[in-house]
Structure formats: structure tokens, C-alpha cells
Amino acid sequence: MPRREEPDIPEARLIPEATVARLPLYYRALLEIADQSIGTVSSEQLAELAGVNAAKVRKDLSHLGSYGTRGVGYDVEHLVGEVSRELGLTRDWPVAILGLGNLGRALANYRGFGARGFRIVALVDADPDKVGQAVGDLTIEPVEALSSIVAQRRVAIGVIATPAPAAQAVADRLVAAGVASILNFAPTVVVVPPEVTLRKVDLATELQILSFYQQHRRRVPDRARV
Amino acid sequence: MPRREEPDIPEARLIPEATVARLPLYYRALLEIADQSIGTVSSEQLAELAGVNAAKVRKDLSHLGSYGTRGVGYDVEHLVGEVSRELGLTRDWPVAILGLGNLGRALANYRGFGARGFRIVALVDADPDKVGQAVGDLTIEPVEALSSIVAQRRVAIGVIATPAPAAQAVADRLVAAGVASILNFAPTVVVVPPEVTLRKVDLATELQILSFYQQHRRRVPDRARV
DNA sequence: CAGCGCTTGTGACCGCGTGCACAAGCGCGG
DNA sequence: CCGCGCTTGTGCACGCGGTCACAAGCGCTG
């Protein structure tokens, strides 16, 4: 096990991981508010829309800087700008989808996917029968071409939608090609070097967690349902 | 993160939320080990396969009871039994999928979905044009029939795969029908009463988090977001 | 221009989760 | 039957994140 690297460059503003995970919620809430031509928003209102509490909103936003006005609230337009800048949504992120089974195809066709900043630029599969097929505007390409695809199209994010047994090999190829951000849908543990950011979305895991709580649900007799 | 219910009745064995979230990982690892006819497994080996550290494995498993043997390890077969019992995987959980766009159809066809214990028993959509269509072995039914479907087929888990604007209404219908476990794929905040367990899987959010770290070029601990 | 109401920003506290390190305990070999 | 090596189970300390509550500060009004 490699020893953890020391943070030699102390970051001026480092934003807590928990806060980063909530920024997208605020972003979405802010877009809705902006659509309604509302000038300012309070932490209370934003909390309501994002499904968190107001103190958290204030503390989270304070990490980005002091963009609020006491007694008034936050300027919606300005805050949208700050949050989207912080999240990197002012740039364009080329995305590659790896594995085009049911899930991969659904992702490729998912409109909300490429909504803001994310653009699918490549579809890759190891199956020779799938290579050459068209999915939406793109054509499925062979996994052997991954390296040059990543380099030429500046792929920043790889989305793994392969069967579990293929996931680690695909991740290794992505890392070797220089992709530093990976979203894994395959139901298996994928190991990447520490400089690569890996997030996972796991259906089976989510269902099993639900199953746990469902089973352990306390049997409160006839509690009124809301 | 779902808020914990007030402990008015002190639960004998209450398992930390973080542990519950890791049990599926152990379960999957244990199944792989069991396939290789290995009798016992150490916390170290299990940790390797589950992508966590050994101390955590031991502490997590200790919450289920003392099923290990010092100097030896854990009996694989026995542990599989205990974990699957704890996760409620010895039962059958009827699942309904709400909304059959790209994602809903992919979920309906996803093999790994119904792998263990989870059985899709209903597909529901609000669009009259989709009602009656066949997807796999099932036929899409109207959302108006949801209540009776849930009652008759004992639906325990609802999977929301509708567009964002429809999600809250569908969730309300599910709750009203008595479904206490909901998995939300729609990119929006859904509010449910506290006795209902809600988990969410959000593509856009995940991508935006990746985008943040990509832009800030800083290594982030490979933490499981489960 | 002073006072008042409203909302932000943050200091302080607290509880959960994590990791370390070690004692407890099991089995095996001599 | 005793000692040794291996692995579990856990006490402890620490840090992150969440919540509360309040001081600071802005704008409006009289």
C-alpha cells in the first residue's frame, strides 16, 4: 500500500467534501429560482428547495466567499455564476461512455446527461459486433482505440457501464490514457490511483440498503400516514 | 442522508448507517469468495475485496455479532448467511418501476437488478401511449392503477425513473399506496414523510462533483458514496 | 440620522465515524 | 500440555460535519 502523499501545496480555499456534494443541489435550486426572475434568495428559501437546512446552506456558501448581503439574502444571478464557476460548469467537459449494454445506451440517449457542460464525445465497447453501430449521433468504437480517442477529443470524464468483470480493465485503460475522473456504474469495486477521482453509482447496493431498512422497519401499530 | 428517527424505543442491536452502507460490499465480496469454495476469510482479505480497510471490516461485522474465530477468520458460508439475513436478502422484494423512458426501460431490462431477492413486478407510466406496451415480460400499466397494484402485488420498493417534474407526484402516490422504500433517479429533490426511506441516484450531481474535482485538480479520497 | 427588523456569517459544541494499537483468544506444533 | 503465531474484537483518541445561537451588518423608515 503506497503511503499517502503529504499536501505540499496548502490550498487557500479548500471546500469540504460534504459541501461539494451539496453544491449541485444548490445549483439546481438556483436555476429554478432564476427562471422565475427572482432577484434575491434567502438561505431559508434555498434550503427549502435543496432539501437541506438553512444553517448548512449558509455555511456551505460561506466557503465559496461572502456573496450574501445581510438583511437581504443572496443575489440569485451572481450566486448562480459563482456556484457554476466553482463546479466547473462554465467549461465544456468531454465525456466517454464505456460499455453499451442497456444501461450504456440509456445513458447515451439520456438528455439531462449532457444538459450543462457535459458532452458525450465517444462510445466505446469491447464487443466487435457492437462496434460500428450508431447510437444517437455517435458510432460505437473499439476499446483498442480508447487511448487515441481520449487524446484527440480531450476526454475528461469516463463513464463505465460495462459488466462487472470488465470494469477494472476498462478503468485501467482510462487511467493509462490520462482520464482523471471516472464514474463507475458497474457493480464491482474498482481501484484507481489516488490522483484519479472515482465515484460510483451502484443499483444493487442501493436496493440492498433499502431492503435493510425495510426489513428493520419498526412495526409501529397504525401510525397515521401523512 | 436520511435523518435518524428518535430512539423512543431503544433498539437492541442498532447498526450504524455507515456500516449498513458497506454491508452490500461485503456481501458481494463474500459471494465471490464462496464461489471459489474457500472455507474461511480474514478481515484483511475481505477488506481487499471490498475496497475498505481491515479495521473497518472487523468493526462492521462485530455489529452483526461475533461471527469470527480469532486466529482463523470468518466462516464464509456462515457469514454470507448472516449478512444476507441482515440485509433482508433471504426474502423476496417486489419492485415497481415508475416511468419508462430510456432509463426506466434500461432498469427493467437490467439483469443484475433482480439478481438477488429483488423482483420487478410492475411497470407504470403516466403516458397513455406507453400503457399497454410490453417491456420484457411485463406490460406497462397506467399510474392510476398504482394503488391497487401495490396492494395486490405487495410492492415494497418503488423506483422512480420519471422526468424531474413528475417525480414528487409519483412519490406521493407511492407513499399514499403504502410503499415505504423509494429509490429516486429523477434529478430533483423529493420529499417524503420520515417513516419512508428514500435514497437517490443522481447522474447530474455525480458528474458535477467530478467536474469540481477535475477543475480543482486536487486528489480526493476515494470515498464510497453509498 | 437613529432605530429597528431581517438575514448573513461564524464561533462553539457535540456526536458519529475512522483508524490505531493492543489485549483476548483460538488452533497448531513440538 | 505448553508456548507461539495469527486474527479477531474493541477501547481510545481524533477529526469532520452538523446544529445552534448570536453577533455583525445591511437597508428601510420615520
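Chain A has two domains: 17-87, 93-207.
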